[in-house]
Every structure is written in C-alpha cells, then in structure tokens.
Design goal:
The complex is a heterodimer of chains A (about 110) and B (about 110). Chain A is mostly beta strands and about 110 residues long. Helix content of chain A is about 0%, strand content about 55%. In chain B, strands 2, 4, 5, 6, 9, 10 and 11 form a 7-stranded mixed beta sheet that branches. A 4-stranded antiparallel beta sheet of chain B has the order 1-3-8-7, with no helix packed on it. Classes of the chains: A mainly beta (about 110), B mainly beta (about 110). The interface of A and B includes residues 46 and 89 of A.
Chain lengths: ~110, ~110
C-alpha cells in the first residue's frame, strides 16, 4: 500500500527556518512532488513543486534527494501567519494503479 | 472573483437522506476532482474528471456519484447518507491533470450527518 507520511506537528518561533519532510516510497517515476498549505476552514493552496534536486520560489524551497523517496519543504524565517497544516502530494503507482496521494499533513505552529 | 466555488458551504442532514454538493471553476481547466477530508485532516481523492470523462474513481461506496455536465462543473451526489460520511468535501481543478499539474481547491463543504 502506498503511503506518504509526514510528522504530525511541529512548533517553531518567528524568524526561524522550518524544514518539513515527507516520505513517499512509491512515487511514480515521472511524477512531481507538490506541497500545499491549508489554513483552517479553507482549501489547500499551492506552495511549491519539484521533480528532483532543489527548487526555490519566493516563499519556500524544496529539496529532493536522488532516489526521490522523500522530499523536504523548507520555509525560511517563518512568521505567525505561516501557522497552518502543510501537505505533500505525489502520484504513486501501487500494483500497477496510479493514485494521487496526499501526505498525512504536518501541523506547523509558529510562536511569537 | 472566486476561481473554484462550492455550494453549500455547510450541509447538515439526517441519515438516509440524499444530498448534492455543487462545484464550479472559472479557470478554464480541463480536470476537476473531489476530495474528502476527515476529522483527522487526512485528504483523500475520491474522483477525477477530465473534460467530463471519469479518469480516477477511488474505492468509494457507490452511494457517491459524481456528475459533470460540462468541464466547468463537477457535482457530487450522495445517496442514503451515513454517519461516516460526515467530513469536509473539497472540489479542485487543474489545467490538464497528471502529476505536474497544480490543483486549485475550493473552500470546502462541511457535511454533518446526524
């Protein structure tokens, strides 16, 4: 069974860098890894996407090792408004069937 | 202007009833999705349509029936509602579908079955 796992929760202080890792052992060969942010009572919102090595945009960086079985979302200098749940999303192939699989979600709490 | 909209936002109903949730996207996307988010915040895909054609149908009870009248709409009809159907249901859309596509999510519909 394809599983995509993340730490349940993390706490951080304002101004610190936060790294959230997702484990995705069954990622499909050609699939990208996408990270989403979700605030309470809202739908998930796209943060960043990558296939391998490192990707950086204006809000985050994404690190993907060569085997692509995991990925790490890096949020530089978090603020209180970054308090949210973060999900990775991958396409995975299990028993020949392709599936979209969201990670279990990481609840990030940023403290003042 | 809302990109992906869902109605209703809240839905409270009795066991055994039949209900529908509507979803519309104005992004011109070809692919639409339904997800279920349970009380533990796990997100699980239920269905995906590409240009009105069903392309992903996860193992969900056949009480759940998606309908896509056109590529901008994907509605979810649920028959004989059960307590376990209580969850937040999210609609999403993406350009063409597939692992490289960014999905845009609606605000969710919180379904409570009593």
């Amino acid at each position: 069974l394809a599983k995509t796992t993340q730490p349940i929760s993390m706490d951080s202080y304002e101004g610190q860098e936060v790294n959230i890792t997702c484990s995705h052992n069954n990622i499909a060969t050609n699939d990208y890894i996408t990270w989403y942010q979700q605030f309470p009572s809202q739908g998930p919102r796209f943060i960043i996407q990558g296939y391998k090595t490192k990707v950086t945009n204006e809000v985050a960086s994404l690190f993907i090792p060569a085997d692509r079985k995991s990925s790490t979302l890096s949020l530089p200098r978090v603020s209180l408004s970054d308090t949210a749940v973060y999900y990775c999303l991958v396409g995975a192939t299990t028993s020949g069937t392709y599936k979209y699989i969201f990670g279990t979600g990481t609840r990030l709490k940023v403290l003042a | 202007d809302t990109a992906v909209s869902q109605t209703p936002k809240y839905l409270v109903t009795q066991m055994g009833n039949d209900k529908s949730i509507k979803c519309e996207q104005n992004l011109g996307h070809d692919t639409m999705y339904w997800y279920k988010q349970d009380s533990k915040k796990f997100l699980k895909i239920m269905f995906s349509y590409n240009n009105k054609e069903l392309i992903i149908n996860e193992t969900v009870p056949n009480r759940f029936s998606p309908k896509s009248p056109d590529k901008a709409h994907l509605n979810l009809h649920i028959n004989s509602l059960e307590l376990g159907d209580s969850a937040v249901y999210f609609c999403a859309s993406s350009q063409v579908g597939g692992g490289t596509d960014t999905q845009y999510f609606g605000p969710g519909t919180r379904l409570t079955v009593l």
